[in-house]
Design brief:
The complex is a heterodimer. By secondary structure, chain A is α/β, with parallel strands linked by helices. Chain A has 2 domains: 6-146 and 315-379, Periplasmic binding protein-like II (D-Maltodextrin-Binding Protein, domain 2, 3-Layer(aba) Sandwich); 151-312 and 382-428, Periplasmic binding protein-like II (D-Maltodextrin-Binding Protein, domain 2). In chain A, 44% of the residues lie in helices and 14% in strands. In chain A, strands 1, 2, 3, 6, 11, 12 and 13 form a 7-stranded mixed beta sheet that branches. In chain A, strands 8-9-7-10 form a 4-stranded mixed beta sheet. A two-stranded antiparallel sheet of chain A has the order 4-5. In chain A, strand 1 (40-46), helix 3 (54-63) and strand 2 (67-73) form a beta-alpha-beta unit. In chain A, helix 1 packs parallel to helix 3 (54-63) and helix 9 (199-209) packs across helix 11 (231-245). Chain A is globular, with a radius of gyration of 23 Å. Helices cover 74% and strands 1% of the residues of chain B. Chain B has helices spanning 2-11, 17-51, 68-73, 77-108, 115-127, 130-141, 147-154, 171-195, 200-208, 213-224, 226-241, 245-250, 262-272, 276-306; strands at residues 54-55, 63-64. A two-stranded antiparallel sheet of chain B has the order 1-2. In chain B, a hairpin with a 7-residue loop joins strand 1 (54-55) and strand 2 (63-64). In chain B, helix 8 (171-195) runs antiparallel to helix 11. In chain B, 28% of the residues are buried. Classes of the chains: A alpha/beta, B mainly alpha. Chains A and B meet through helix 4, helix 12 and helix 17 of A and helix 6 and helix 13 of B.
Chain lengths: 435, 307
């Protein structure tokens, strides 16, 4: 008897699910068969891998006979370098399936087609469309899950010290911290060794200090109207400094990677963990006897209680059409884009990504209580990750200086000046922000 | 090969095809290697030089900027910091690897039982991938769950249970230890090969003259190991200046740039900030530095030879 590996099992199941879904789908009947005469290879350059998208690939090939999808999983980290290499080599590129943070680069760089006039934009939640509109033009369609970074709470840890309810402000955390520490529990764990995870602390902090105008404030700083050393921006760094100075982080925070942080949190060594909402799916499929998972919005660090405690997040993958696509494949690319972002295919993607909230209005991805809670209180309070607007140099500058703040080797004002210096250098180099 | 060539030359009259082929044959033999070297080494080297005088982000058309990318290096604060870390890294790893490798090679050169087993075991880290080693050591260094701190704590040496990768003062040292562990086996094998070329008669004569073990080491072993030492130090030094994998995987240059080295800085400038031209210019500067340091070291060691 043929042995199925885990990989082949997943791939077969996903393909079968995709094909079954497709055959029962109204899309199969209603899709505009605008593929023209093109048959043959169709290339999707994606930040995701082919295995995860096996159902979608199978679905496209079934829906468009004669099309052979070549799914190039470049990964998010290496997208820029591999895409550039492909482009320079003159490889075929048809659809770009990007991590949202990379959209701006390719949109401003003229690598994507204008999608503003598509007829089916009402299938998406408006927040996704707004996020992928740059300079008044829609460059990509949001696809997948709306997700973000809430403060995860281990209720068992709070039960240990007899704390009921949810803390709301930083002061609440300060009040319970001594009891937590006495019980051998760090108030916060965070994968601080993973430098990429530090800017999210600025996102929620600045969301509060800017009076819930973080995106507008980011536009303002990137166009040179304000500076990172201004009080509102500085405040975000000061909140982080306070967390570090008050001993809210586990001692090893800067040498803890994501796995170690997860281990510490799930083993009850930390009461809070700042991590991505996809952890809900991990929690449901694993066994964690020392964890009773819940989450809250980031704690209030400002006096004004009318300010919303926003959390940073993203609006799924950004799927668009390569600007220099060969004319004979343009029609089919539009049809495939329509199909890829249909409710049926998005539901499939939501399932594989264990998403709490879908980018599509009519898709409800999960009945999980925590996912529903995220849909109810997380997603409405979500602001776009600010590094989707920042140039990468600024993201790196934040990462380095935030680590230094937590390590105690820099104060917030020195860090803010360092970050502003990087931006000033970019201006001197001709950097220009397109809102 | 030499004898075949000679024979073709001897039997073929001058000007004949055979004669010409005989003259060409050395070049034909090295042609495949030369092609590969040209495509994968010389080509990128020249391409990099061209890139270094351009401003190119991979999206916009490249713009010729002359030496601007090189000028910019002088105002880049991270370059000085990264180079300092490279020098410290070189000092730590070269010293650590050479001393440890030499010590172990001397031990294994004795007629001890299980020598092959020890030699193989000690060589094992060399064949392991950098990624595996980096992840392995990240966990060993973990302050809360790691074996190293657990061991120190169980021995009552709590003061040695440190925040290995999270403390800006010791993170670079922690990476140096990993590098030494990864490579000492390689240098040990080279030392062992060198030790086995030293004639035993020299030691016998020295013993007859009443030389102690320490004197034999100082006056026979170390001087005769000098050529091998030069190879080991050169390789180790060049490796230290080009180091990328361990800091990139274990700390990404952090915390707060405490482990930032040139290769990581170059990578970030190129592939994260899309400044391919500047990144290429930095690469050339690194190439010059490594060449100068290696040349200086070779010169110093060969001048000592004359003494």
């Amino acid at each position: 008897m043929k042995q199925f590996s885990r990989r082949s099992f997943l791939k077969t199941s996903a393909s079968a699910a995709g094909a079954a879904l497709l055959s029962a789908s109204p899309f199969a009947l209603n899709v505009i068969r605008a593929q023209g005469d093109y048959q043959g290879k169709f290339v999707i350059m994606s930040a995701g891998n082919a295995e995860q998208n096996a159902g979608l690939i199978e679905g496209i090939q079934t829906q468009f006979p004669g099309i052979e999808v070549e799914w190039r999983g470049l990964t998010s980290e290496r997208y820029a370098e591999l895409f550039t290499a492909s482009e320079v080599a003159g490889d075929q590129i048809d659809i770009m399936d990007l991590n949202g943070q990379d959209l701006r680069r390719y949109a401003v760089g003229g690598r994507m087609k204008d999608l503003s006039s598509l007829s089916y934009l009402d299938r998406f939640r408006p927040v996704g469309l707004e996020t992928y509109t740059v300079g008044g033009t829609l460059w990509a369609l949001p696809n997948g899950g709306i997700s973000g970074f809430p403060f995860f709470v281990n209720r068992k840890a709070l039960d240990t010290i007899g704390f009921e309810g949810d803390p709301e402000s930083y002061q609440d955390l300060l009040d319970i911290a001594p009891d937590l520490k006495a019980a051998g529990i760090a108030p916060f764990v965070h994968g601080g060794q993973n430098i990429y995870l530090w800017p999210i602390w600025q996102f929620w902090g600045y969301a509060q200090s800017s009076g819930n105008n973080a995106v507008e404030g980011t536009y303002s700083v990137l166009t040179g109207d304000t500076k990172f050393t201004d009080p509102e921006h500085l405040a975000g760094l000061e909140y982080l400094y306070r967390y570090a100075q008050d001993g809210m982080f586990i001692d090893s925070v800067n040498s803890m990677d994501t796995d170690a942080a997860q281990l510490a949190f799930t083993e009850g060594k930390g009461a809070f963990w700042y991590h991505h909402s996809s952890f809900v799916g991990t929690y449901r499929t694993g066994e964690y006897p020392n964890l009773d998972l819940s989450f809250i919005q980031p704690l209030r660090s400002v006096e004004d209680t009318s300010i919303m405690r926003q959390l940073p997040g993203g609006t799924g993958a950004a799927v668009g059409i390569y600007a220099n696509i060969a004319p004979e494949r343009e029609e089919i690319a539009l049809a495939i884009l329509d199909f890829m972002t249909s409710d049926e295919m998005t539901a499939l993607r939501n399932e594989s990504g264990a998403d709490a909230v879908s980018t599509n209005v009519n898709v409800s991805p999960s009945e999980d209580p925590l996912a529903l809670r995220y849909a109810e209180i997380g997603s409405p309070a979500q602001i776009t990750y600010l590094d989707w607007y920042w140039p990468p140099e600024i993201t790196r500058a934040f990462q380095e200086h935030q680590q230094a703040i937590v390590a105690g080797t820099e104060t917030p004002d020195v860090a803010a000046q360092g970050i502003q210096d990087v931006l000033d250098e970019l201006y001197a180099d001709g950097y220009e922000f397109v809102s | 090969m030499a004898s075949i060539t000679t024979s073709v030359q001897r039997d073929s009259p001058r000007g004949s095809w055979g004669f010409r082929l005989g003259k060409l044959s050395p070049y034909l033999w090295i042609l495949p290697a030369l092609v590969l070297y040209s495509v994968f080494k010389l080509g990128p080297l020249i391409g990099g030089l061209v890139l270094s005088v351009l401003r190119w982000d991979g999206i916009e058309d490249p713009v010729f900027v002359g030496l601007q990318n090189f000028e910019r290096i002088f105002s880049d604060d991270i370059v000085g910091l990264a180079l300092t870390h490279n020098v410290l890294y070189a000092l730590g790893t070269v010293t650590g690897k050479i001393v440890l490798a030499l010590f172990l090679a001397l031990l294994l050169n004795q007629g001890m039982r299980g020598r092959a087993f020890y030699r193989t075991s000690l060589f094992m880290p060399v064949v392991m991938s950098f990624v595996v080693i980096s992840i392995l050591w990240s966990w060993l260094y973990n302050p809360d769950f790691g074996l190293i701190n657990s061991l120190f704590k169980s021995l009552g040496l709590d003061f040695l249970a440190l925040n290995w990768l999270g403390d800006t003062d010791i993170a670079l040292g922690a990476l140096i230890i990993v590098d030494i562990w990864k490579w000492y086996g390689f240098h040990m094998v080279i030392f062992l090969a060198g030790l086995q070329t030293i004639p035993v008669e020299l030691y016998e004569a020295a013993r007859i003259d009443g030389a102690s073990n320490r004197q034999q080491l100082r006056y026979i072993t170390l001087p005769l190991l000098k050529p091998v030492m030069v190879v080991n130090v050169t390789l180790s030094l060049a490796g230290a200046f080009n180091v990328f994998d361990i800091p990139f995987i274990m700390t990404q240059g952090g915390p707060a740039n405490a482990t930032m080295v040139m290769a990581v800085h170059i990578y970030l400038r190129g592939f994260k900030f899309y400044r391919f031209g500047y990144s290429a210019a930095l690469n050339y500067v690194l190439l010059v530095i490594v060449t100068l340091v290696s040349a200086l070291q070779l010169r110093l060691m060969s001048s000592n030879d004359g003494d």
